[in-house]
Amino acid sequence: MTTESRKQREIREREELILSAAQTLLHEHGYNHLTMDRVAETVEYSKGTIYNHFTSKEDLVCSLGCRCISNLIDVFERAYQYSGTTRERYSAIGIGYSLYNQLHPMDAQNVQTVKNNAVREKVSEYKLAEMETLEQKITTIARSIVQEAIDCGDLDKSHQDDVNTIVFGCWSMHYGALLLDQSDIPLQQLGFSPVVNMLWKNANIYLDGYQWQPSSTTIDTDKLFEKISSALFADEINLLKQAV
Amino acid sequence: MTTESRKQREIREREELILSAAQTLLHEHGYNHLTMDRVAETVEYSKGTIYNHFTSKEDLVCSLGCRCISNLIDVFERAYQYSGTTRERYSAIGIGYSLYNQLHPMDAQNVQTVKNNAVREKVSEYKLAEMETLEQKITTIARSIVQEAIDCGDLDKSHQDDVNTIVFGCWSMHYGALLLDQSDIPLQQLGFSPVVNMLWKNANIYLDGYQWQPSSTTIDTDKLFEKISSALFADEINLLKQAV
DNA sequence: GACAAAATTTGACGTTCCGTCATATTATTG
DNA sequence: CAATAATATGACGGAACGTCAAATTTTGTC
User: Fold this and answer.
1) CA-to-C1' distance for A119 and C27, Å?
2) Per-residue pLDDT band at B244 (split at 50, 70, 90)
């Protein structure tokens, strides 16, 4: 009983030790510098032990990705619980997503790494399933808000069949934007504004296209951004300010 | 003179030989199966010779990416020359992009691989610059159409400052959508429709948000999709039908 | 055409890193 | 305390990258 649970706790704790060591290596020197030997050396266990926890380097990296998605779920849940219009709550998700990615650019990069087929090939089935479950959880939150908007009339009932399309639209827009932002394409040099600004504007325009009330043309969007981010993401904002 | 140009031609031809061998390997067995030794064996030159053309495996893969972007530029240029409203021409870009990615899913995956920092680190400066130039060319085409829309009044002049934001919005939406489509996330299982359909709908809604005339609410969008794709991308459509 | 110099090609080799597995060590149980 | 089970270890095999001295081919000159 006690023995068993102590054992399990030890295993879990070591797993976390490995994960945080890996994350540090990843953040400080990038994917190529993260090697299983280095991880083993850092946590002072042998490589074999690391492989008792993770079936491959890619499996380890995927676990880090799962962690990030869990963090994002927190962000999404906070947004979900915001007391405002459905549109504000939905926008809050996007804002949270943007801020999280600004704060942890490496995390998003890492999640994207796992999407790469060459990497994905080597991740264990089990871990892939875990990631999928987490992603499903995230889309469910987004979907709920869209559905509530239809139910309360903020979104026209004629869009009932578009719930998934709307979720997908915002998802793809944010996902694409943040990936472009990260991928060393010199957007600023190409004449583009900071991505968070463009994204906020575009998301609003997109939702206006669906006539999700209240339209962004009737309100001060800068103020709304400010309001939501200070209400829900004060910590993130502070950290971001410190970073600059 | 002749000698010099013959030499250069030989080099260029061999480079193409290497690239197409690499592409085949990549398409048939994925990134991990693509090795420099295998490429060398396939083209019947030694590895050293391959390295005279490409500074690393990643550099070779990046060259393949550049090829894909060149193909996309063709697509974009066709769209640019379409004789229709500015909105139709801009939409044509998106349609072309979607179709190209449907037809060559591996290509898009490959371009994305190069965006990954772990890969990018190892690409030569020269090749990165080449890719950047090509990407710049693409955004310029998109930007031109938006500008023309403003000039002719299809888009309100108040959006003059948003030209880049509009280009970025469509780009990110399409880019994100197609990446999500490729990344083994079982979208259909999660209840989502085929990505090309959602993307077409969302792009229209987005442009409606900017009130780019004529609004999608006043026309039959299915017909428009049909019209544009058969006018500009008949070849691609045929190939897609054959593939099914 | 012969020979020297320059350019190019070659593949064996050094290195890095992954993942395994026989052996050593520690823990559990009777 | 001894036998057995569970776990940890790191030396090792293998795959792939990228290099470079030597071999080969091409170019240039007389």
Assistant:
1) 37
2) confident
